[in-house]
Amino acid sequence: MATESQPRAHKAGAFDIRLIIALLIGVYGVILTIMGAAFTSDEEIAKAADVNINLWAGIGMLVVSALFILWAKLRPLVVPAEPEGDDTPAAAGE
Hints:
This protein has 94 residues and is mainly alpha-helical. It is built from three helices and two strands, in the order βαααβ. The chain has helices spanning 17-38, 42-47, 53-74; strands at residues 10-11, 78-79. The two termini are 34 Å apart. Keywords: Membrane, Transmembrane, Transmembrane helix.
């Protein structure tokens, strides 16, 4: 238990870079999945060796996004309450 003399460490929360990456990959995954499921013609699929690449890439990106979110939730980053060392330069005038 932390007392007044010992500041508590806290989680990075929304500032965790893994969540930002998951959001970006997830948005692109949703767009590709919708494009692949609803707006891809048979001609385009035939050009891509009969594979709906937009659909499969979108699903893959959604899976990767979910894994990033799971990783961030299971192993959160803990931000120390104080700087680790005294290597920060002193302000002018001190």
